[in-house]
Amino acid sequence: MTPRDRLRRLTALVRKETLQIGRDPSSLLIAVVLPLLLLFLFGYGVSFDLRRSPICLVVEQQSAAASELTASFLASRFFSVQGAVTTRDCQEDLVAGRVNAVVVIPSDFANRLYARDPAPMQILVDGSDPNTAGLMANYISGTWQTWQAIEADSRGRGVAPRLGVTARYRYNPEKESRNFLLPGLVAVIMTLIGTMLTALVVSREWERGTMEAMMATPLSVFELLLGKLIPYYLLGMAALGVTTTIAVWLFDVPFRGSVLVLVAVSTVFLLTTLGQGLLISTLAKNQFVATQAALFSAFLPGFLLSGLVYEIPSMPWPIRLFTYVVPARYFVPSMQTMFLAGDVPGVLVPNSLALLVIATVLFAVVAKKTPKRLDG
Amino acid sequence: MEPLIHIDGVSKVFGAQPAIDSLSVVFEAGRLNGLVGPDGAGKTTLIRLLAGLLKPSAGRLRVAGFDPVAEPAGLRDVVAYMPQRFGLYEDLTVMENLVLYADIRGVVGTERRQTFERLLSFTDLARFSERLAGRLSGGMKQKLGLACALVKVPKVLLLDEPSVGVDPISRRELWRMAADLVGQGIGVIWSTAYLDEAERCDHVLLLNQGKSLFSGPPGDLTAEISGRSFLVRGLGSERRQVLQRALKHPSVIDGIVQGANLRLVLAEGAPPPTPAELGAPPTASLDPTPPRFEDAFVARLGKRQTGDSPYAAREALGTAGEVTVEAKGLTKRFGSFTAASEISFAIKGGEIFGLLGPNGAGKSTTFKMLCGLLKPSGGIARVSGFDLMSAASQARGRIGYMAQKFSLYGDLSVRQNLDFFAGIYGLAKGGVPVIAKMVEAFGLGPYIEVNAGALPLGFKQRLALACATMHDPAVLFLDEPTSGVDPLTRREFWGHINALVGRGVTVVVTTHFMDEAEYCDRIGLVYQGRLIAEGSPDRLKARSRTGACPDPTLEDAFIGLVESVERNGRGHDAT
C-alpha cells in the first residue's frame, strides 16, 4: 500500500462527501439555511439595546421650561413619545405594557426647577423586566441631565459641576449589541456544522448500511474518520468566512483582529465541535438519536452557556462550573475580542489552550471508541 | 490444497443467544455456495464473520488463506462483500458510486476503464450511469451493488440475500451473473431465504438456529425423500378443504397448495393415502412428482403442521360468489408518469387474488388504490360496494390490512398492540372478548407482556394477522406478507388465510414469492402500469407452455409473459 493509494482513497472519500452535501437537502439546511437565518435574525431582529422605546410624557404645565424638556425627549432616538395631559390617561398603557415608562412634568415644574428642588419631575417605570427597567431609568435621567446642563448653560448661569463624570464606552462605543452578538454567533453556527451535521451524516451511514460496506473494503477506520473530518472542517471554515463577511460588510461590525489569528483560533474550536460530532455518531447509530444528542450536548449549551446570551458570572455556581466543559464558552469571548478589541493574547491564548485540551481529549476518546468491526 | 473458506468450530454469541453455534464447514473455490435458512438462522452473522466485520466468540476461521480478524488488510483485498442493503450511496450517481469503489480499491487508469466497461455491460447499467443510485429500481440497485463489489476481481464474493425484494426477472439475471463469476474461478457465497434458489447451487449449507442442518450438493438432500412427493390433481374447487384434511392424515408430513393442485410430502415408508381418505372428489388422483429442495427441508425439520386455524370455527360471511372488490379503469398518474393505467378486475367473496409484477411495474400503486391509501387519478375502486373515495370510512371498516414487513409497534407489548388496534377499529367496549379470543386462538398467552419487537418471527406474523383481522373484515389486503419468512411459518400463515377464505373473506395479496402466488385462485400480472394477464396460476402456466419448456413453473410463466409484452412493445416501436 503506497502513500499514493492512501491519498487517492482520501480524496475519493472527500469528493464523495462533498457531492453528498450538495445533494442532500438536510445538509444544505444545516450548513447554509440555518446559519443565514440565525445571522439575519440576530443581525436585524434580536437586540439587547433600547431604541425608540415607547414612553408616555404627561405634560401638566405649559411653561417654556416644560416645552423645552418635552422637545428634548421628542428629539431623543431612544424614545417614541406619546403625549398626555394627566397621569391617569396613560396609567392603563403602562399597566398593559404599551409604554415602558411614564414621565410626568408636574404643574409646578417651573417653580420647583427654579427653587432647585432636586426632583422636579416624576418617572414611573415598568419594572417587570428589570433589565429594561434599569435601561429606561438610565436613559430618562440621562436625557433629563443633558437638558438641565444645556438649559443652565443657555441662561449663562454656568454652574458647571466641579467634578464631571463622562462615561466612554471603549471597543463598542455605539453600544450596539449586535457587535458582540454576531461574532459570538459564529460559535453557534460552527457547532451546527461541526457537531450536528457531522453526527447526522455519520449516523446516516450506519443507518443506511454504507458504513458496513465501507468497513469491508481496504479502507482503514482512520481514513474513514479523516474522510469525514476534512470536508466538514472546510465547510465550517467556509461558514466562518461567510458569517464574518456578512457581519462586517452588511452589519458594520468592526473587525480589529487579524485574519490569521481568526483562522487559527476558529480551527481549534472547530476541532472540538468535530470531535464531539464524531463521538456522538460512534455512540448513537441512528440519525434521530444523533440529532437529539447534538442538540442537547452542543447546540443549546453553545447558545445558552457560552456567555453569548446570558452572562456566565451571573449564573448559579453549579452551572457556572459546567460551562468550563462547554467549548463555546472559550470561543465566544475570543471571537468578541478579535472583532471588537483586536488580537489580545491575554484573552486568546488561555482560551485557545483550553479548547486544545478539550479537542485532544475528545479525539482520544473517539479514536478509542470508534469500532473497527461491527461488534467493536 | 487448502479450501477457499474453512470454518472450524466457529460460534458467535450475542448476549446469551448463539447466532452461530459451533459450526464447521468448508467452501470451495469456483463454486456457487448457497447459504440457506429461515430468517434469524444466522446467515448474516456468518457472512459478516467471513468478511471480518464480526469477531468469532470461539473457533477458527480462514478465508482465502487469511484470518479475518488478525489479517483484515490482506483479507479485504481479496474479499468482496455486498451487504443486504447494497452499500450504495443513494445520492451519488451510478458512475460516482463505481468511481468511489474503484478509488478505494486502487483500480486506476486503463484497468479502471476496462473494468467499468465490462461491469456496465455485464449489469446492463450503461444507460443509467448518470442516474442517482436512489432512483434505480430494486433490481438495478442490486446489480449496481454487485458491480461495486466487483470493481476489483475478488477471490471470494459474499452476497447477503441479494434476491430479497427483487422481482423474478431481475433475480434470474442476478443469478446468471453469479454463475458467470463462478465460471471465472471465484468462490461465491449466496445467502437466501428462497429455497428454490438453493436447488440451483453447487453446494448448500442449510442453517437453522445457527447450526448446520445439511451441507452438500442440494441433490443429496432431495434424494433423501425421493418417491415421497406427490401431486393431488383434479380437485375442482375443494383443494383448500382437502389440504386441511390431508394435513391430519398420518402419512402426510407436509402439504401446500400449488395452483389447482396440492403438493404432499409423505412420511418415510408411509403408504400414499387414497383420494377417498383425503375426502377428495372421485375425479382426484395422487401422482408421484419429483421432490423439491423445500420438501426435503421441511421433512428435515420434522415439525408437523396441523393446518388448524381459529378462523375455521367462525361463522361464514355469506359473501361467496358476490363481487367484493372491484377495480374499474383504475389509473394513477404522477406528473407525466402513468404508474397504473386503466386497470380493471373484479374479485369475488372467498377468493384469493394475487397481484404480481416486476419492481416498479405499478403493482404497489394498484394495491394502494384498492385499499384506499392512494387516490386514483381516474377510475373507481370499490370494496363491498362502497367507493373508497366517496364512502371511505364505510369501505375501510370492511378492510383488514397487513403491511409489508413488520408494521406493529415494536416497543409496545402484545397486549398493548391488540388493545390499540381494538381501539382504532372502534371495538373499545366489545374489544375485550375479541382480544381474549385472539390471544387464545393464536397461542399468544405466554407472550402477552412481551414487546412485539422481541417476538419470534412466527409470533410476530400471528400478532400482525390478529391485529389486521380483529374487526372481522370482509376483505383482507396482504402486502408481501411472508417475504423472508421460513417455510414453516409461511405454511402456518397460509393455513390461517385458507381458513379465512373458507368463511368467505376475500384476500388480495401482492408478492414476489412464486410459492405464495401458487396459493392464489387468480393472479393479475401488472407490467408497465397495465394488467397484461389475468387468470388462475395453472392457466398462466399453460399460456407459456412451449416445446422447449413443456412444464413451466409459475416463475417461467411470469417471465415469459413479461418478455412477450416487451417483444410486442418493441415490435410496435420498430414499425
Features:
heterodimer; A: 376 residues; abc type-2 transporter like fold; 2 domains; 66% helix; elongated; B: 575 residues; alpha/beta; Rossmann fold; 4 domains; 6-stranded mixed β-sheet; 23 strands; ABC_transporter-like_ATP-bd (chain B); nucleotide-binding (chain B); ABC_transporter-like_CS (chain B); ATP-binding (chain B)
Describe this structure in words.
The complex is a heterodimer of chains A (376) and B (575). With 376 residues, chain A is mainly alpha-helical. Chain A has 2 domains: 21-46 and 176-369, no CATH class; 53-149, abc type-2 transporter like domain (abc type-2 transporter like fold). Chain A is 66% helix and 6% strand. Chain A has helices spanning 3-23, 25-45, 64-75, 87-96, 109-114, 130-154, 178-208, 210-215, 221-250, 259-283, 287-304, 317-322, 327-340, 345-369, and strands spanning 53-59, 79-84, 101-105, 122-125. The two termini of chain A are 25 Å apart. The mean pLDDT of chain A is 85. Chain B is of the alpha/beta class and 575 residues long. In chain B, strands 5-6-7-3-8-9 form a 6-stranded mixed sheet, with helices on both faces. The radius of gyration of chain B is 25 Å and the shape is globular. Classes of the chains: A mainly alpha (376), B alpha/beta (575). Chain B: InterPro entries: AAA+_ATPase (IPR003593), ABC_transporter-like_ATP-bd (IPR003439), ABC_transporter-like_CS (IPR017871), P-loop_NTPase (IPR027417). Chain B: One of its GO terms (molecular function) is ATP hydrolysis activity. Chain B: Residues 5-234, 325-553 form the ABC transporter domain.
